[in-house]
Amino acid sequence: MTHNTPPTDGADELIVRAARDYNEPGPVPRDEIWNRIAEARRSQTDAPPTSLPERRRRYWGVWPGVGVAAAGLVAVGIAIGRGVERTPVHDDQGKQAPLATVPRDTLHAGPDLVTTAPVQVAGKSDSVTDNARGDAPSSLGDQPNSMNVAYRLAVVNHVVGSEAMITAFRASARRGDVDPQLAKWSRDLLGETRLLESAAPADDATMKRLLEDLELVLAQIVQYSNRGMHSPEDLDLIEQSIRRRSVISNIRNLSAGRLPSGT
Amino acid sequence: MSSPLPQVFASDPRAVDRQLVARCIDGDGTAERALYDAHVDRIYRLMHRMAGDGDLAADFTQEAFIRTFQRLEQFRGDSSLATWLHTIAVSVALNGMRKVKRLRVRSDTMDSIAELPAAGNPAGLTSDLRTRLHAAIDALSEKLRPVFVMHDVEGYTHDEIAGTLGIPVGTSKARLFDARAKLRLALAAFAGDHIV
Predict the structure, then answer these.
(1) How many CB pairs under 8 A join A and B?
(2) From A215, which residue of chain B is nearest by alpha-carbon distance?
(3) Where is pLDDT greater, at B153 or B2?
(4) Which residues pair with A120 in a beta bridge?
(5) B124: distance to nearest CA of chain A, Å?
(6) Fewer CB near the last or first residue (10 Å), C or N of chain A?
(7) Where does the pLDDT of residue B69 fall: very low under 50, low under 70, confident under 90, or very high at 90 and above?
(8) Minimal Cα distance from A45: which residue of B?
(9) A212 at interface of B, judged by CB pairs closer than 8 A
(10) How far apart are CA A95 and CA A79, in angstroms?
């Protein structure tokens, strides 16, 4: 480690000297970070697609008050899955667009979206499948179209779960406590959001934006949950982020197929 | 148990990198931990310098290593593993900081820092100067700040910075020059003869 542009004069020297303790790090929490990495990687590789709904089921045992909302959200997920499966889609000339089959094993969306029959997804014009046309470069551009569809379905499933968590968090935080299970759930969702974000197609700015906004809100919730003392101001900041970025309405638009892709 | 690295590789860091990566790809947990241990200190230090917060630094470090492990098969060995890892880490930090900035509305611009009234007490100069300098570094642009932090704070060479940021060495030097000039300007009103 050498400085290959040494300070040229006294002023530079002063700057370099005064900058030495800029954001000075303390001891490196090696083991703590390693454990977190190991846990995150384990959950990526080991966790079956059912992990989110399973977590949700466990969670509803603790939070029965929001169980009804969860049921509604699951129904939305099923409706999307069935809608995607059954709705005939017409192209610009009014002809029915060909359907592409998405292999079941490419769906990372969990059982909420996986129906008993092989899932068929419209190839064109469907908001869920806009991204699968393959006519624009993307980070998934080399993958089969079905992967893009599977990715989008996974995102839909993920954001629906996130909405459930945010709803539960709001209810619990207003009562002045945050259950440890809720804190863990929000951390898991944050990790999954980041993974989905890093795999987002480059040309789908809307999706990326939604995931970024969701990440921001989840990060705030994680920070809030980690703190021992909960201040109303912090809670208000979270509420503001949710409202300003229209996170909930964007999630609902996405899950209802109203959020355009590729914009 | 995995075997230690053969002696023949000891003098060839690239070969060590390739060997380590190959073992990680094969699922060798010891190799993964060895890779982590070899780089985590430097990565964490840089993340902390860029984030200014231990929790964020840990988050960025964690994310950088997760992405590194995910993408190891893409490592071709054109650059060193350290450079490749740093590229991922700096990208994670810059993206993360963009989001954090959306959270913390930071109003300290270079202008406002320069407009702060000068301290009347010469005895307090060092501490005030440091505080102002740190605020001025915070306010550097996304292009200048990583170069300044890496070079003048963490002691990376221009070669390392250029490799990490994917820019020519000359650009790294030019950015460092610009960063120092901006910091001088930001501190000029305060430090007067000490700076200009």
Answers:
(1) 116
(2) B99
(3) B153
(4) A101
(5) 13
(6) N
(7) very high
(8) B70
(9) yes
(10) 24
The answer to whether the CB atoms of B184 and A11 lie below 8 A apart is: yes
pLDDT at residue B23, rounded to an integer: 94
What is the greatest pairwise CA distance in chain B?
A: 65
Q: Is A71 a residue whose pLDDT tops 50?
A: no
Nearest Cα neighbor of A246 from A197, A221, A209, A205 is A209
The residue type of B112 is: S
Place of tokens 């129904």: A75
Q: Are the C-beta atoms of B158 and B171 separated by less than 8 Å? A: no
Best mutation target among B151, B153, B158 (most A Cβ atoms within 10 Å) is: B153
Nearest Cβ partner for A18 among B61, B133, B177? B133
> b/e for A55-73, b at 16 or more Cβ within 10 A?
bbeebbeebeebbebbeeb
Tens digit of pLDDT for each residue in A198-220? 777 767 777 888 888 888 888 88
Q: Are B182 and B144 in contact (CB under 8 A)?
A: yes
pLDDT digits (tens, 9 = 90+) for A166-188: 888 887 777 777 777 777 888 88
- HSE on the CB side for B142, CA within 13 Å? 10
Of residues A1, A22, A28, nearest to B49 (C-beta): A22
Helix or strand (DSSP H, E) at B168: none
Q: b vs e for B114-150, b when ≥16 Cβ sit within 10 Å of the residue's Cβ?
A: eeeeebeeeeeeeebbbbbbbbbbebbeeebbbbbbb
Residue contact A28–B41, C-beta within 8 A? yes
Least confident of A119-133, B10-24, B69-83, B146-160: A119-133
Gap between the terminal Cα atoms of chain B? 60
Tell me the C-alpha distance between A238 and B58, whole Å.
22
